[in-house]
Amino acid sequence: MQISDFARQTGLSADTLRYYERIGLMQPPLRDAGGRRVYQARDLDWARFLIRLRQTGMPIAEMQRYARLRAQGDATAAARRDLLVDHRDGLRRRLTDLTECLSLMDQKIATYQAMISSGKDAADDTGQS
């Protein structure tokens, strides 16, 4: 598929795809007779994986490290697994932190809702922020 179709299917811009290629996150795709990029289904799977890594906050440098290991083949399976385990563990810590933050927000919202329901003026809030 052409870069425009590939971009549409991944949600990445053509510029981002070229950037990912330039920094080694994506292997250069095949080219047609006119020199245009032609992406394969495996490229789509890889791009979707990269998108997930970015969504989870993996830094570009770590994504590049993973991509380099992937390019080296099956001999790097343990290193790739370890990289993903470390990232997953960090995600779990962040998720725990965010869950605690969400709980605090829910408590504050409930406090303000109770104040509003009882007719108490928010200015009477004694030290609660």
Folded structure, characterized:
The chain has 129 residues and is mainly α. The chain has 2 domains: 1-71, Multidrug-efflux Transporter Regulator, Chain: A, Domain 2; 80-119. The protein is 67% helix and 3% strand. The protein is built from 5 helices and 2 strands, in the order H-H-E-E-H-H-H. It has helices at 3-10, 14-22, 41-55, 60-71, 77-118; strands at residues 30-31, 37-38. A hairpin with a 5-residue loop joins strand 1 and strand 2. Helix 4 (60-71) packs antiparallel against helix 5 (77-118). The N and C termini lie far apart (54 Å). The model has no long low-confidence stretch (mean pLDDT 93). One of its GO terms (molecular function) is DNA-binding transcription factor activity. It comes from Paracoccus haematequi. InterPro entries: DNA-bd_dom_put_sf (IPR009061), MerR-type_HTH_dom (IPR000551), MerR_fam (IPR047057). Pfam families: MerR_1.
Detail the topology: elements first, then pairings.
Elements: H1 3-10, H2 14-22, E1 30-31, E2 37-38, H3 41-55, H4 60-71, H5 77-118
Antiparallel strand pairs: 1-2
InterPro entries: DNA-bd_dom_put_sf, MerR-type_HTH_dom, MerR_fam
Protein name: HTH-type transcriptional regulator AdhR
Pfam families: MerR_1 (PF13411)
